[in-house]
Structures
1.
Amino acid sequence: MEIRSKEFKQRSVFAIHDANLQTALGRARYGFVGKRALQVAELPEFERLREEAKNTKNHILDNLDHYLERYEAAVTAAGGHVHWARDAEEARKIILDICKRVDAKTVTKGKSMVSEEIGLNEALIENGMEVVETDLGEYIIQLAHEPPSHIIAPAVHKTKDQVSDLFEAAHGGPRKTEVPDLVNEARLVLRDKYFKADVGITGGNFLVAETGSSIIVTNEGNGDLTQTLAKVHIVTSGIERVVPTLDDATLFLRLLARSATGQETETYTTISTGPRRAEDLDGPEEYHVVLVDNGRSKMLAGRFKEMLRCIRCGACMNHCPVYGAVGGHAYGWVYPGPMGSVLTPLIKGLDNAYDLPNACTLNGRCASVCPVKIPLPDLLRELRHMQHQQDITPVMQKRALKVWRYVATRPKLYHALEQVGARFLSAIAKNGSIRRLPLASGWTDVRDLPAPAGRTFLELWQGKRGQK
Amino acid sequence: MTAAANAREAILNSVRSALRRGPLDDARRAELDARRPQHTRPAQDEELVARFIRKFESRAGTTARVASRADVPAAVEAYRADKGLPARAAVGAALNDLAFASLETHHAPAGIDEAMAVSQALCGIAEPGSLMMASGPASPITHNFVPDDHIVVLDANAIVGHFEEAWDILRARPEGMPRATNIISGPSRTADVEQTIQLGAHGPRRVHVIIVG
Amino acid sequence: MTESPTRGPRVGLFATCLMNVFRPNVGFSAVKLLEDAGCTVEVPANQTCCGQPGYNSGDYDAARALARQVIEAFENYDYIVGPSGSCMATIRHDYPVLFQDDPVWLPRAQALSEKSWELLSFLADVLHAAPSDSRYEGTVTYHDSCSGLRGLGIKGQPRALLGEVDGLKLKEMEDSEVCCGFGGTFCVKYPEISEKMVEDKVRNVLATGADTLVGGDLGCLMNIAGRLKRVNAPVKVFHTAEVLAGLADGPGLAGAAKESE
C-alpha cells in the first residue's frame, strides 16, 4: 500500500466534514471504550497482568533471536515450514512463490495487518489470483477498494447504508438493509470461496516457541475456515510476535480481547501446529509461516524497542481523541492512531510521515489503556526530537523555537515582552476576548482568545509586595 | 548460501546487533529453555461446572446437562427436534461408542451444506467458559466451523479452572499437540456492521454443549 | 521536627506563562491559598517558562536550557508549587529524563522534581488544607486536564476541595477525562481537529447545565472558554484556585466585565 501520510492535514479536514464517517466514529468510540471499562472493572488482576505482560514482552525481546530459533525448530518438527523475510518485497515474493507452485487460483485471507503492511493483495491480484478477504469488515472494505481504517475493526468507518450499497453492487440485488440480512448474505457468498480456495492466508497473533504453533483470535470463525479448507495455509507475522510458551500466550490472551473489543474472550482462539497429519480427514496439506522483519529488528536497538511490545489490540486508537475525530484513513498508511503514528515513521521513514507524531496532544490516554504499557506519548515526542535533529521539522518552526529560547532564557526581556503582549491584547479585546488575530489565526479561526487584564502577574506582584 | 538462508542469518544478526551482543551462549540458552513462567491467574471462587455454564451462556451459547454418556443421543435428539433440523449429522468418530438411533450419521469432514455436527470436547475451561477441541482423525476440524448447529459433548470432570491447566492436558497427550486446537467460546459472531452484534457470521449460528456427569 | 509550628514551608511560586499574561488572578488565588495554609510564598523574579514548548517540539537542548534556569531559580525553596498540572508534570517527570546522562544536573533535577507540586495536590496531599470560608453560588463542572490527571494523579483532590466551598454544587460531565483539544502548539497546528475536540468538550459541558466550568490548567481553560465564547454559550470559566480562594467574583476567562454582575 502506497503511503499517503504526507496528506494527513488535508485528509483529516476531509474526514471531519464527512458526515457518514463522523456518525460511524461516534458509535464505535463509545462502544469500545465503554465495553473495555466494564471488562477491566470485572478483573481485579488487570493492572497486575499489564505489568507482567510488559515485563514478559521485554524478556522476549531481549532474547528474541533465541526464541525465534526455538520456534523455527518446533514448526519444522511439526512438519511446517518457516520462511524469513527481511522486508516487504521478500515477504511478497515468498508468498507468491508458494502460491504459484501450487497453481493457486483462489486465495482466501483472514485478517492480517502484516499482509496489509507488505502490500500482499495487490501482488497476488497482479499475478492473476482471486483474493478474497473473509473477515466481514475486511470483505466490506475490499469491495469498497479501501484500506482498513482500524486494526481490529477495519470497516468501522462504514455505515450500514454504505454496506448495503456495496453488497448490492457486488452481489446483485435485492438490496438488504438490515444487519442480520447483510451478514447472512456475506456468509453465503464467502462459503463458496472457502471451499474452493487453494491457499488460505492468516495473520498470527502469537507464535509459540514451545510448540511451534501459531495462534489466531477471531469472533467470526473466518480465520478457521480460511486455514482449514484451503490446501495450503500460510501465516504472515512480524518477528516480534513470538512467545516462549503457551502460558505466556495466555497472559496476553487475558489482556487482548478485553483491551480490543471489550470482550472477556473472543469466540475463537485457534492454535495451529503444522499441516494435516497422516490420518487426518481435513486440514491444509502444507503449513507455512512467513516471519517478517521489515524494520522491526532495527527498532530493538533503542527507545523504540518498547513499541515492539504491541499486541495490536487497538485500545490506543479507541481511546485517542484525535483518531476519534478523524478516523483511520487520515493517517495515510496501514496502521492508524497512536501506535500507527509511532510505527509508520519508523517503517516508512520520518520524512514521509511528518504530521503523525505531531498531530497528538500528548494527553496520555492511549498509554493509560495500553495492555503492555507502551509509553506512546513519550515515543511520539522522541520522534519529534528525531525530526528536529534531522531538520525534517519545518524551518519556520525551528526559527520560532530559536527565538523563543533566546527570549525565554533572558527573564527581563521575556517579562518585558509579556508585558507588551498583555497590554496589546487587552487593548484590542472586546467584551473580554479577541475574535480575530491575524498572526494567531490557528487559534482564532475556531475560538476566541480570552483577553488578558492588561498587566502581568509579576508586574502586579512586584507592585504589591514591593510596598510591603 | 541461499537467499533464504541469507535472510534468516541477516535477521538474526540484525536482532543481535540491535541488542548489542552476539549469539547467546549454551548456558543462557539452557536457562531460557528451563524457564517456566508463573503468570497471575485471575481468582475464581465458583464451582467449575457452574462457572463454565454461566460464562458460556453469557455469550449466547446453550447448555444441557445429562447424567451419563448413554443419555447423550437423547439429548442430541431433543435439541434437533426442538430446532426442527433434519435427522442427519456429521459425528466425529470419537463418539462412536454412542448409538444415535434416530439420526443418520457420518464421520467424514463437514461439507458445504452440513446442517449439524456433534463433537467431543477435549476439555472445558471455566475461566472464560470455553470449550477446547483437539483435532484428529476422530474429531475433524470442519465439524467445528462449517455446520449451522454445533453440538459438543463435554465431560463435567474435564472442566478445568484456568487455561494453564488445559495446556497441561495438551502436554500430557502421548501424541503431543493436536494439529489444530480450537478454543470455542460460543456461536460465531461479528460486530463489523455498525458495532451491532450478529451471531452466525461464518461459523456455527448456534453452539450447544451437552455436559455429561 | 525542629521547625517551629508557626513557621510553615517556604514555597517558591511557579508563575506559569499563561497565568502571568492572561490570568494574574490565578496567581493571587494561589498565593492566598498557600498563605492561608501557613506557607511563606515567594515569587522568584528570574523565572520564565518551564521549557515544555521546546521539549514537546522535540528541541531538547532548548528544553534543557530552560530547565536549568528553573532549577537555579527554585532549588533553594522547600517546595516549588504552580497552578498547572502541565508545567508541574514537566518539572516532576521530564526534568530528570532530560538530564539522565548529565552527572552534574541530574541530581539537581531530581531534587527539584521531588519537591515540585501542582497547587491543588500540594494543598490536599501535603498541607492537608481545606479552603477557609470560601463561597461560590453556582453549579460547577470540572474538566480533568490530561497532564494533571495522568501525569500527576490529580482527580480526587480538586473535587474534594471544591466540595468544601459553600454554595457550590458539583455536576460531573460526560468524558471529563477526555482531552479538550488544546495540546499546546497542537491547537494552532491542527485547528480543525482541535475544533472537533473542543466542540465535543463544549457539548459535554453544556449537557450538565452547569453555569461554571473549572479546571487546573489555563491552556485547556482558555481553549474551552474561547470556544464557549465563540458559540455564545453563557458558561463562566475559572481556574479551580480562583473559586477555592474566593476570588472568582470577577469575570471569568473570556468573560466581559458585566457578566459577573
Note: Chain A touches chain B through 100 residues (CB under 8 Å).
2.
Amino acid sequence: MIDPSMRPELWLHYGVGPNPRQFSAVREEYYYLEEAMEDVARGRDSRLTMISGEARSRLKEALGDGFMDRYVRWMDKNGVNVVTATSYEYPALLKEIPDPPPVLFYRGTLNMDMQLPLAIVGIRRCTEYGKEVAKKFGRELVKAGATVVSGLATGIDGYAALGALSVEGAQDPTVAVLGCGIDVVYPQGNEKLYGAIAERGCLMTEFLPKTPPLPRNFPQRNRIISGLSLGVLVVEAGERSGSAVTARLALEQGREVFAIPGRITDPMSVGTNAMIRRGEAKTVTSVSDILEEFGEGGAGDEVRSVRFNELSPLEQRVVKALSEGEKNEDELLERCGGGVDELISTLTGLTFSGIIKQLPGSVYALDTLETNIVY
Amino acid sequence: MLSQANSFGLSGLKGFPVKVEADISGGLPAYETVGLPDTAVRESRERVRAALKNAGFDYPSDRRITVSLAPADLRKEGSVYDLPIALAILSANGQLKQAPLVRAVYLGELALNGQVRGVNGVLPMVISAREAGESVFFVPRENAKEAACVEGVRVFPVDDLSQLVRFLRGEGDMAPLPKVEFSPEEGESPWDFADIRGQAAAKRAAQIAAAGGHNLLLCGTPGSGKTMLARAIPSILPPMTPAECMEVTKIHSVMGHRGLVTVRPFRAPHHGASAAAITGGGANALPGEISLAHMGVLFLDEFPEFHRDVLESLRQPLEDGIVTVSRTRMSCTYPASFMLVAAMNPCPCGNRGSRTRQCTCTPSQIHRYARRISGPLLDRIDLFIEMNDVPFEDLAGKEKGEPSASIRKRVVAARARQRLRFGEDSTKTNARMSVQEIEAFCPLNSRCQALMEQAFLRMDLSARAYQRIRKVARTIADLDGSEQIQEKHLAEAIRYRRLSILGENEL
C-alpha cells in the first residue's frame, strides 16, 4: 500500500516528470507541498514560475476528478511500490549523488542498505567472451555477498543479472534500473528475466508508468545505476558507449570503476581497454580484484584445478593445443592426430568436465574461468 | 453396335480397373464421353478422331458415338484412355473383333498421326492390375520398361495404332518385352568427399547420417561448404535394393518419370516452395517432394527461409515415414521415408562464429532467427553440426580427404549390421527405430548412463532428444563394428546434439 503522506510528492513528480532539478526547485519554494497544491487548485501560479507551463497544466490536471486516487490504486493493483527521497527507506548511497531521483517506482524488495551493491554494465551486442565473464562475475559477486546492479538490457547487463539469479537463496541478488516505465518490458523477449527479478530482486525506475524506452532516457537512467553502487564493473564497451557514460558518472559520484581487459583487436573491448589505459578504471581479472577494494578479500574465485598428468594422452594434446589459443576441430585434428571420431568424443568429455568450452562455429577454447590446469 | 476394352485408372498409388465402352448408333451425329471424365479425358475425342482418320481407319463421323468409362462414380484423369477408346470405337464400328480387347489391358495416349505416346503412372497401374488378375498389357513403348519389371506379366510395347490393330487382327506380329530386372546403381554426385578440404567433423557427421539414415542439420557461415557437403552425400549412400527401386519407381512414375529409378533420389526444392509442393497435394492429391525423396535425400537449403507451415508439415512424415494427402475428393497415402539434410546460416548476417568476418546481428535478431525452426522440428533432427569457413590459404594447403568410395564401404557395412538387426528384407535403419527397439538394441552401460546424466544436466535435453542420441550412438557403434554402445560412441553422439544458436534464448 502506498502511504498517503507520499501523495503530494507523487503529485509533483507526475507534473514535472523525471526532472530532479525542477522537482527540488519547487520543494525549495514550498516547504509544505500542500500549499503548492492549493495554489495550483486556485490557479495562483506566481510562485511556480520556475516550471514550464506544460508542467503547471499537468499539475492542475492531476488535482482534478480523483486522478490521484486512480493513480495510486493502479500502482497498488500492479504491485508497484514508491519510495521518495525524503523517506528513510530511500537507498542511502543514492542520496549522496548530485541529483538523486526524488521519486522511485519499484517492484520486488528494495533494501535501503545493501551490503555491497556493485554495478555490472556493458555493451548489448556482446561477444561470447563478454557473455561468460558477465555471468561468472554476476554469480560470484553475489556469492560473496554483493548485489548486482544492472540495466536489464540484452547483452552484458542481462547476463550479469542472469548470473546473479543463478545463486539460489541469495539475499538481494540483483537490482535492475529501467530506462522506461515500471510496467514496460524492454527489450521484448526479456519477460522471463523481468519476472524473475521482480520476484527475487528489485526492478526500479524514476520514469512515469507507461513511459516508452526513449533513447534519451538511458543516459539519465545510468546515473542511478552508478549512484546505487559502490563500484561499477564494465565488462565490454565499444568506442562510444553508454557504459562509458556510466563509468564517467561513477567517477563524478566518487565511486570505484573497474574494467575487464580485452584483446586490442576486439571492437567490443575498445572502450574498456581505453578506460584502463587512461587510468580511469582498475583492471580486473578475477572477482577478488574487486572485493579487495572493499576489504572483502575473503571469498576466493571459483576455479577448479585439474592436474595435467591425470589427463589421457589425447586430452593432454588437446589441452596443449588449446593453451595456444582457440582452435576449430580441423585444426585440432591436425595438431593432435587420432581419428575424427576419437577426437570428437574426447572433446565432449573435456567439455563436460569444464576444462574446455565450445564457441559458435565448432571452435573450442580452454575454459579458464572454470578450470585451472596445473602442469 | 456396342463394344468394350479394358483399361486402368489410378488413385494415389493404387490402380482400379476401368471398362471403356463404346456405342455407335443412329441419330444426330454426336460424341459423348461419360463416367466423370476430366478435361484431358474429354479432349480425347479430338485425338481419337484425328488418330483414327490419319491411321487410315474409318471414323463414323455421321453417327452418334457414346463412350462410357466404368465405374461411373470414380473420376478418370489423364490421357491414358485414348488407346482403349480408339480400339473400342473401331470394334463397335466392326473393324476389329471384340475378344482381344477384353483379354488384355490397354494404356496409352494417341498422337494425331496415330502414334502412341507415354503416360504417367503405368507401373502402379500394372502392379494393381496384376493383383486383380490381369496378365497381358499393351502399353506405350516409353512405358514398356517400367511395366515389364512386374513379375508374371506379358508386356507388349506399342508404337502406333495401326501396328497394334494389325496385330489384334492377326495380320502382324508383336513381341512381348522380356522381364526387366532392376539393377540398382550407386549414386553419383558432382563432388567426391575427397574434394572437400577440411571440415573433418562435418564429413564425419554426414557419414554417420548416411550409415543410419539420420536427419542432419548443417549450420555454418556462407562459403563453409554446406551445400557442397550435402550434394556429396549421394556419393556415400549405399545402393538401393531391387524392392526399394520398385517402390521409388512407382512414385516417380506417377509424377511423369519414364523408365526405372535405380539411383537413390536427391531432391533439393527451393525455399519458396509451397506446403502442397513439399508434402503433396493439388486437386488430384499428387505426391510432393518428400515422397519423391523416398529412400533418398531431401535437401532443404536455407532451412529457416522455408515457410513456417512447410516446415511444420514435415514433422509428421519425419516421424512416420508416410504422408497422407487429403483433398475434398480423395485421400492418398504416399511413402515418405527420406533422409532430411537441412542447411542454415548461424545468424541472419551469416558471420556468427566466423573468425575472419564480424557478425553484425543483435542477440534478439539471432534469437528470432533461431526461433523460426520450432523445437518439435529440431527434436526430429538427429545430428547437428556447425561448419566454419576455411581460409583460402588453408584450402590450398590441405591434403585431400578420404574418397567417397571408401567411406561408402563403411556405410554399406554399417547398413548390413542394421539388416541383421531388423531382418534381411527390412528397409529399416537405426534412425527409424521405435522406442521398444531402442530399449532392446541400444542398452547403455553404467558408464554411459553417467555420461548421459551429465548431458542432461548441461544441455537441457528433451526426452525425444535423449532417444535421438541413443540412436545416433547405435549407428556410431555400427560404423565401429561394435556390438555394444561404448562410452566413446555415446560421447561422440552427444557432440552432434550441440548447436550454439539454440543457446541464444536464455534472455
Note: The mean pLDDT of chain B is 89.
